[in-house]
Amino acid sequence: GADLKERAKMDDAEVGHFVKRLRNLMDEIAALPVPTIAAIDGYALGGGLELALACDLRVAASSAKMGLIETTRGLLPGAGGTQRLPRCVGIGLAKELIFTGRQIDGQQAFSMGLVNHTVPQNNEGDAAYQRALTLAKEILPQAPFAVKMGKLAINRGMEVDIASGMAIEGMCYAQNIPTRDRQEGMAAFREKRPPQFIGK
């Protein structure tokens, strides 16, 4: 999260500029054309959780602490938290977490769908990071362009009604049809061998 001691020294205009830049950064992370995975092994409070919410997938140690705690400091989430948290856990839970400023652990986050996986913390303190690497290794062998188009279709489709979302999916699918990777995937299936994707 933000350094509140540093923020306390800013005037109103500086705070507004700082939060706008932070929001833009989170939007840029969310718009990356590749999958992003947040590994939460310790605290992800305020801006730290907003950063995790900007990622596609989240993994947390069961002992991790998360929360949009801004209301406990006279603030509200300003880097996407009020928009991304409800889309992740639903409006009711998001309102409860934001209104109360409550901190939750990794297991609670998993039970409400805030994180994809929760793992017991290890002696090195990097259990979530290790699980995130395992998840990345599951994604890595897949066709890069198909994963990119899947991410685009999901992200854009969640912003519109289902009929428009289906049209977006159709446009993304059409872009994938002429790829070498699609042809390779079909050939590998016919030949009963693992595909060798090249990202084209």
Summarize the structure.
It comes from Mesembrinibis cayennensis. This is ECHD2 protein. The chain is mainly alpha-helical and 200 residues long.
Q: Any overview of this molecule?
A:
By secondary structure, this protein is mainly alpha-helical. The chain has 2 domains: 4-138, 2-enoyl-CoA Hydratase, Chain A, domain 1; 144-191, Lyase 2-enoyl-coa Hydratase, Chain  A, domain 2 (Orthogonal Bundle), CATH 1.10.12.10. The chain is built from 10 helices and 6 strands, in the order ααββαββααβαβαααα. It has helices at 4-8, 12-30, 47-54, 81-89, 91-100, 106-111, 127-139, 144-157, 162-176, 180-190, and strands at residues 37-40, 43-45, 57-61, 65-67, 104-105, 117-119. Strands 1-3-6 form a 3-stranded parallel β-sheet, with helices on both faces. A 3-stranded mixed β-sheet has the order 2-4-5. α4 packs across α5 (91-100) and α8 (144-157) packs antiparallel against α9 (162-176). The longest helix is centred in the N-terminal third of the chain and has 19 residues, at 12-30. The two termini are 38 Å apart. Belongs to the enoyl-CoA hydratase/isomerase family. It holds the Pfam family ECH_1. Keywords: Lyase. This is ECHD2 protein. One of its GO terms (molecular function) is enoyl-CoA hydratase activity.
